[in-house]
Design brief:
The protein has three helices and five strands; from the N terminus they run H-E-E-E-E-E-H-H. By secondary structure, the chain is an alpha+beta fold.
């Protein structure tokens, strides 16, 4: 049992934004199409939060797109979820806001609550930042090595061009 808990901890992100039901959030999700990758932002109302302390914690986000209700579930500790940003916090008394599915127009509005947006969204993951910095340093070193290699090739080509030009001068 202890081993399972330890294994689960390895898959958890260092820090995750505190999301509650009734929050309006922007979820930045990595989408892979073929061999291309892009970031897609899904903004909507959190109607459900599940298993908050677990590595399988999940939120369900709902939005109306062209008059059609769209719901997506996101695993908070998934590597595909790049960023989670709380834009609005509302007063709700439940964890599962299933009644919001039936509401439209003005009746679907929730009463906003003041909150410190900066403090909620400013979540720092030290390990991830360190890994990102190491990756950037490795990429910079690789680019520097490639630039030096290209400079050496260019110097060799310039030397050959100078030899050819000198031979051409001698022959004419």
């Amino acid at each position: 049992m202890e081993y399972i808990k330890q294994l689960n901890q390895t898959f958890k992100k260092g820090a995750v934004v505190d999301v509650r039901s009734g929050d309006t959030v922007k979820v930045h999700q990595k989408i892979r199409e073929g061999n291309k990758e892009r970031v897609q932002i899904f903004q909507g109302l959190v109607i459900r939060t599940d298993r908050k302390g677990s590595h399988t914690s999940r939120i369900t986000v709902r939005r109306n797109a062209s008059g059609v209700g769209v719901e997506k579930s996101f695993l908070l500790h998934s590597p595909l979820v790049l960023k989670l940003e709380v834009t609005k916090r509302s007063k709700v008394r439940r964890n599962y806001l299933s009644y919001m599915r039936k509401l439209t127009g003005k009746s679907a509005r929730l009463q906003g609550v003041d909150f410190d947006r900066q403090a909620v969204n400013d979540v720092r993951d030290g390990e991830a930042e360190k890994a990102e910095a190491e990756a950037k340093a490795a990429a910079a070193a690789e680019a520097e090595a490639k630039a030096a290699e290209d400079a050496a090739k260019q110097a060799e080509l310039d030397k050959k061009a100078a030899e050819v030009a000198a031979r051409h001068q001698e022959s004419s």
